[in-house]
Each structure stands twice: as structure tokens, then as C-alpha cells.
Amino acid sequence: MASGHRIVALAWHQRTSAIDTRERLLGVLTTGPDRALLATCHRIELYTALPDGGDPVAVAAQLGVTAADRVTMSVHEGPAAVAHLFAVAAGLDSAVVGEPQILSQVRRACAAASDPSLVAVLARALHVGRAVRSEHELTSTRSVGSLAVDAALAAISDPLRATVLVVGAGEMGKLALRALVRRVGAVVVANRDVARAGELAAAYGARAIPLSEVPGALADADAVISAADTRGALLSAASIERRLRSGPLAVVDIAVPRSLDADARARLGASYRSVDDLPGARPRVPDAAVAAALERCDLEAVRFCETRSPERAAAIRELRDGAERVRAAKLARAMKHLGHLSTRDRRIVAALTENLTHALLHAPTVALRERSDAEVAARTLFDRPPR
After folding, report:
1. Which residues of the chain have pLDDT under 70?
2. For the chain, where do the domains classified as CATH 3.30.460.30 start and end?
3. Each residue's pLDDT tens digit, 351-368
4. CATH class of 5-140+286-307
5. Is 41 a catalytic residue?
6. What CATH number matches the domain at 144-277, 3.20.20.70, 3.40.50.720, 1.10.8.60, 3.30.465.10?
7. In terms of C-beta density within 10 A (0-12 exposed, 13-18 middle, 19 or more buried), how is residue 257 classed?
8. Which of 41, 110, 297, 305 is catalytic?
9. What is the pTM for the complete model shown?
10. 3-state secondary structure of 246
């Protein structure tokens, strides 16, 4: 970490925080140059680099998190926060263990951040997440979208003769659409961007419609899987009530905030399921492999924090500064004997010495990041006594 800072994670997960809480927080917490927000169906997490001595709870309050919502907030700090982020990136903390979708959010958060410590930990999380998933065979073909499909079809007596309406053509909608292929009679996909819906519909043998046609499409639907942030605007209580007059309707709402408001949910009763009502899924790997993957995340977190310590950073900086002094001195001495060179040729020689120094320093720099005695080793290279 940068000197005097530590990574802090404020987290609300389905296990501890109701969906009402997570919906409210989506309207409060935002991403920014100094903080990264990861928001999925099951969790909301905010990562930031906090000065040592800073109070994470006070930070949450400053960001607008109410006292009631802070009650279910989990706080991870330092190596524990880094280990948690690595586990999240590896899909170890997901409803579907090993799912890869969270990596795209981590990647976008890394691209949007500018705080050096935050950028470094997010970039490392991408690497660790991919490595852990691959090395421990945590790949999964399941997703929240496929779990939603299972729940919807379980409520239909004859899926092969049924029509399913998928609202939203984003990542979750796409995964649901993929899971529906060959399992139902017909699929209709609705999206704000009709062109996007059309592309997906063509790929999976579905029919595309704009969001404005959703109320009408309900008439022919036996089930609805909603993955769009429509907040009751389309699947209203009135439209649900009209549809229920002609028979039962199963609705699986995997959007957060939810697509149906309280009145619409009440009219559906037990036929409505939110993302929190879906069962989790495990990859077909032994519990020991999952435990080993979590342990790997813990070790990688400790390693990351150690290599980012102020002492190591100072040692590596002194190594590079020392090498630069030697390079500059040797170049100046050589130039005294190269006065016949043109200005262009002198620049080429100077650039050559810089490139050669950087190349020679790469391996020692990497080695120093891995060593516990980095400070002593770096100064010994240039005969500088330890402080």
C-alpha cells in the first residue's frame, strides 16, 4: 500500500443484508477515482484506500449510508480486504461459485480508478481471480441467469409448449436466454436497445421487442425473467393483475433494484421470486479445492500487501535512483570522448543507456518485491548502509 494507507472494503451481501437495503445503497454509493463499487445481484461492495487511523464506519456515514444500513455492513481492512477482493474476483463469494461475470466489473472499476493503491489492488485482483479460477478448476457453466431459468421452468407444467418473456438483454438477460435454448416453446426478449435485443434474438432463436411492448407481451407469456432496471415502470401492478385474469404467471426477478414494485409482487404472491429466493450452485469440485482456493487468496493478499509496503517501495526507489546515478556518471564520462558525434547520435547513445539500465533493473526489481530483506538488499547493491 501507499505509505500510511490501507485498503478498506464496505460490503453488503445477500447473506446478511436484505434486498431492500441493497436497493437503497445503489442509490447512495457511487464509483469514483478514489473508490470502486462492485454491485451484483447478491452484493454491493465499496473499496477505497483509507489513511491509517481513518474510520471506515465514518467514511460510510459521509457517503450517505444510514445508521440502519450500517448495521448489516461488513467491514474488511488491510490484508483481509485484499483477500476478500481476490476471493470475489475468483468467484468464490458468488451465488454460483466460480462464475466469471464479476471479473468484468473488476476490470471496469480498475479502468475508472486513479488512486494508485486502488488501481494496484484491482489490477492484482484480475490476475489472481483468473489464476485461482484456472488452477483450482473453479470454472462453472452455471450463472444467476441459469438459476432463474430453472426456477421459472419449475413453475410451468409443460415448458416445451410455453412462452417465456425475458426483460433485459444485458449480461444476466443474455445468460438467461442462453439457458432457455431448447427448453421452451418460444422466447421473447425485450430491451431498451432494440438492436441489441435483435442480435441476441437472432443468435438464440428468440423474438425481439422494445420495452414499450412488454405489457402487451405479458398476455402470451407463461413466465417472465426480468433482468432490467425498470423499477415497476413496465411490470406494474395493473399489468400483472390483468395478466393473472387469464391464468397463472411465474415471475423471476433477478434485477437489483427489482423490476416489480411491492404491489405487483403482492399480486403474484408465491409465483414471484427475487434473486434472493434462488438457490446457490456449486462447481463440481471437492470442498477441499474451494478451501485451497480461499487459502491461495489469503496468501496472495499478504504477499501483495508486503510488496506494496512503504519500506519495499523506498528500497526499490533507492535501487533505481542508485542505478540512475551510475548511468548518468558513466554516460557523462563517455561523452567527453565522443565529442565528434552529432546531436542526434548523442541522443541515441543516451537513450541506449537508459533502455539498457531499465532492462537490467527489471529482474532485480521483481526479486526485491518478493524478498523479506528488500530494504537491506537494495542498499547493499550500492554500498549504502541500512538506516
Report:
1. 1-4, 140-141, 280-285, 309-314, 316, 365-387
2. 5-140+286-307
3. 899 888 888 877 776 666
4. alpha beta
5. yes
6. 3.40.50.720
7. middle
8. 41
9. 0.74
10. coil
